[in-house]
Specification:
Number of domains: 2
Distance between the termini: 18 Å
CATH superfamily of the largest domain: Beta-grasp domain
Strand content: 15-25%
Helix content: 25-40%
Order of helices and strands: EEHEEEHHHH
Structural class: alpha+beta
Radius of gyration: 16 Å
Strand order of the largest sheet: 2-1-5-3-4
CATH class of the largest domain: Alpha Beta
CATH architecture of the largest domain: Roll
Oligomer: single chain
Number of helices: 5
Bound molecules: FE2/S2 (inorganic) cluster
Number of strands: 5
Largest sheet: 5 strands, mixed
Shape: elongated
């Protein structure tokens, strides 16, 4: 059992946050003004989450907070006590194989450089599971905040169509994680 953060003796300007990342509990100590994208990348080694604009505009830092898509560049880690954070790694199947959304992206070749794709898969997952989107156009509207400089949108939407045709993404875990 993890001790309460208050019992850890905080140094001024730092905070210890208890969160779950892809299903695994973590206690992470970070400056109070550190954004989650930086904590994920620099302290927890999750480099699939990318910081590009740092302004909530491009979507490359998208993660799930308790199953809802959010920009991790706009969230302070210190404010996320007891939140379940899911990155694309948490969308994998139980044996670590690609989950349905990831598999559809692979099968459709829905990437070029790949930089935006981890966040794009998270956003697709949230559109289907959290927002309940059941049409490609609906999902596309939810993806309007996820920019792809390579222009992989047609293939991304083909992959979305495949996931929806298969009945959504039932074995994606969306918050439970597999780590
Ligand atoms: S880096 Fe977060 S939205 Fe661009
Ligand atoms: S695949 Fe290159 S930015 Fe999207």
């Amino acid at each position: 059992m993890t001790p309460p953060a208050a019992a850890l003796g905080e140094e001024a300007g730092w905070h210890t946050t208890r969160l779950r990342l892809n299903g695994a509990p973590h206690l992470v100590r970070a400056p109070v003004d550190e954004t989650l994208v930086r904590t994920l990348r620099q302290r927890l080694g999750v480099t699939s989450v990318r910081e590009t604009c740092g302004l909530g505009v491009c979507g490359t830092c998208t993660v799930l907070f308790d199953g809802r898509a959010a920009s991790s560049c706009l969230a302070l880690t210190a404010q996320l006590q007891d939140v379940e954070v899911t990155t694309c790694e948490g969308l994998r199947g139980p044996d670590g194989e690609p989950g349905p959304v990831q598999r559809a992206f692979i099968e459709r070749g829905a990437f070029q450089c790949g930089f935006c794709i981890p966040a794009m898969t998270v956003a697709v997952h949230a559109a289907i599971h959290d927002r309940g989107c059941r049409g490609v156009d609906e999902v596309a509207r939810q993806l309007s905040g996820n920019l792809c400089r390579c222009g992989s949108y047609p293939q991304v939407l083909e992959a979305v169509g495949d996931v929806l045709a298969a009945g959504g993404a039932p074995s994606d875990r969306g918050g439970a994680g597999v780590e």
